[in-house]
């Protein structure tokens, strides 16, 4: 069973139709790279998956469970929406770290709130609160170790380079262990010499139980890391396949024109 | 009348000035936030209503508002209305809450959308996003304009004199009228200067404290 199934997704902003029927499936552990020119709908697709935009039509199914259905009679309340949204994580182009909190607190903030919410209605003893905090804090340390920034745990985001900030943002998203982790052009706001460290972290995250969708302009990265590549143009999926299908054997004219342009 | 006598008498007036200042802040700071939520509401009638209210409050003199609150109830309902000081406090709280609400709104709207969205994708509730992520950033950004407004309040307290509340200016005028000496009225300038000087230092300190991060 695929971990993610997207069925016939449509989204318009006013009169402009940005997504015109997006359907695809993704298996657990797959890395999907989404490529295409600006305005092709890549970012809107990610934002729909993360419930930052509400699709006009279509369904999103995670692990066999429908988390979004535009045809549903009843609107989801905020609580249910929040729960469904947690199937996905999102790393933004502009990091969006919380500037007033340390690196460590950025990672633990939401995780701690969610942990405490599980005990809603019960009065937590000091001891229990401490245990939750310790658990979340240890997990954050492990993630920081993984991205190579444990020594920066007490630093504030403004004291870090763009590449380091983006790595922290990745750890922050990972702290909630989403089923599908999405990256919205994670290196586009970085100086060229900093993109390598971020791409390396993403590459190292690849594992059998971590599913990722990466919207990117880094063709080398897409070619070498992604299991599947999706080429979007004008709100539809023009081509979908393995790196070889896309980069070597494609007969799609739009795709070939796009690849020609990006390879300079 | 000796310098010490005058100072003691003026200090009595200054107590009232200080009372108006503190009570106004304690109530208008939170009330302003509620007005902000109203003026940013997604429900248009509430938004219009709130913004009309803010327009009226900001569009008329505070002195007139004090007069309306003090004499209005008696004229309209024939009731006895508020005591003098209470009327002054009500007018000040409502007036300053309206101004604060606009400063808050500017602060909230200046926070990048990405901060709200980051909170959302991390599964935080609207309430959590506002109080754990946004509010502190807003406070940092509005410290300077709030300092301005708070120092204005120090001097605005003198408007209470219009309904004969014995704050600092009225106390000085009473001495001038009774003892036929003019200098106490100039002397009170020192009280205001000293008070606003202390507030300037306080706000400078707060800004410095929040400078541990940028952005």
Under CATH, the topology of chain A can be stated as: Rossmann fold
CATH fold category name of chain B = MetI-like fold
Main beta sheet strand tally, sense and closure of chain A = 6 strands, mixed
Secondary structure class of chain A reads alpha/beta
Tell me what the CATH architecture of chain A is.
3-Layer(aba) Sandwich
Percent of residues of chain A in beta strands? 15-25%
What's the level 1 CATH class of chain A?
Answer: Alpha Beta
Range of helix content of chain A? 25-40%
User: Which protein chains are joined by the largest interface, and how many residues does each one contribute?
Assistant: A-B, 28 and 23 residues
Compute the average pLDDT of chain B.
Answer: 91
Strand order of the largest sheet of chain A: 6-7-8-3-9-10
The figure for the number of domains of chain A is: 1
CATH class wording of chain B = Mainly Alpha
What is the overall shape of chain B? Answer: flat
Shape of chain A: globular
Report on the architecture of this protein.
The complex is a heterodimer of chains A (264) and B (215). Chain A is an alpha/beta fold. Chain A has 9 helices and 10 strands. In chain A, helix 6 (192-205) links the parallel strand 7 and strand 8 (211-215). In chain A, helix 3 packs across helix 4 (126-146) and helix 5 (162-174) runs parallel beside helix 6 (192-205). With 215 residues, chain B is mainly alpha-helical. Chain B is built from 8 helices and no strands. Chain B has helices at 3-39, 44-59, 62-77, 84-110, 113-121, 126-156, 168-179, 183-209. The relative contact order of chain B is 0.14. Chain A binds chain B through residues 50-52, 78, 82-83, 85-86, 88-90, 92, 94, 96-100, 109-110, 113-114, 156-158, 172-173, 176, and chain B through 112, 114-115, 117-126, 128, 132-133, 136-137, 140, 212-215.
């Amino acid at each position: 069973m695929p971990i993610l199934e997207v069925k016939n997704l449509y989204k318009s902003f006013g009169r402009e139709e940005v997504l015109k029927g997006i359907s695809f499936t993704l298996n657990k552990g797959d890395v999907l790279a989404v490529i295409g020119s600006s305005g092709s709908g890549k970012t809107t697709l990610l934002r729909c998956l993360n419930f930052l935009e509400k699709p006009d039509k279509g369904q999103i199914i995670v692990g066999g469970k429908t988390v979004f259905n535009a045809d549903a009679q009843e609107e989801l309340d905020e609580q249910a929406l929040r729960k469904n949204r947690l199937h996905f994580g999102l790393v933004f182009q502009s990091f969006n770290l919380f500037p007033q909190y340390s690196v460590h607190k950025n990672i633990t903030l939401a995780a701690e709130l969610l942990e405490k919410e599980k005990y809603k209605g019960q009065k937590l003893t000091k001891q229990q609160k401490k245990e939750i905090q310790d658990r979340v804090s240890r997990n954050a340390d492990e993630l920081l170790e993984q991205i190579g920034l444990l020594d920066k745990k007490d630093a504030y985001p403004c004291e870090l380079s763009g590449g380091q900030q983006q790595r922290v943002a990745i750890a922050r998203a990972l702290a909630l262990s989403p089923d599908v982790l999405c990256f919205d052009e994670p290196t586009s706001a970085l100086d060229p010499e900093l993109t390598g460290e971020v791409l390396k972290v993403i590459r190292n995250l690849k594992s059998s139980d971590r599913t990722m969708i990466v919207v990117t302009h880094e063709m080398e990265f897409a070619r070498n890391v992604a299991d599947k590549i999706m080429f979007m143009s004008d709100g539809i999926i023009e081509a979908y396949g393995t790196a070889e299908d896309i980069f070597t054997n494609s007969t799609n004219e739009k795709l070939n024109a796009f690849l020609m342009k990006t390879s300079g | 009348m000796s310098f010490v006598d005058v100072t003691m008498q003026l200090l009595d007036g200054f107590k009232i000035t200080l009372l108006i200042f503190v009570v106004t802040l304690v109530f208008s700071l939170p009330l302003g936030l509620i007005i902000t939520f109203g003026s940013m509401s997604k429900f248009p009638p509430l938004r219009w209503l709130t913004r009309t209210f803010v327009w009226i409050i900001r569009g008329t003199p505070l002195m007139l508002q004090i007069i309306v609150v003090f004499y209005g109830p008696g004229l309209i309902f024939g009731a006895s209305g508020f005591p003098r000081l209470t009327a002054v406090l009500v007018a000040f709280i409502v007036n300053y809450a309206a101004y604060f609400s606009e400063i808050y709104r500017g602060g909230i709207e200046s926070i990048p959308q990405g901060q709200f969205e980051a909170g959302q994708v991390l599964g935080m509730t609207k309430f959590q996003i506002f109080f754990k992520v946004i509010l502190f950033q807003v406070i940092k950004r509005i410290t300077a304009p709030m300092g301005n407004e708070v120092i204005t309040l120090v001097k605005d307290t003198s408007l209470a004199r219009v309904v004969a509340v014995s704050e600092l200016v009225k106390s000085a005028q009473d001495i001038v009228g009774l003892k036929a000496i003019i200098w106490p009225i100039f002397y009170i300038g020192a009280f205001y200067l000293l008070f606003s000087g202390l507030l300037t230092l306080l706000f400078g300190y707060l800004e410095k404290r929040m400078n541990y991060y940028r952005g």
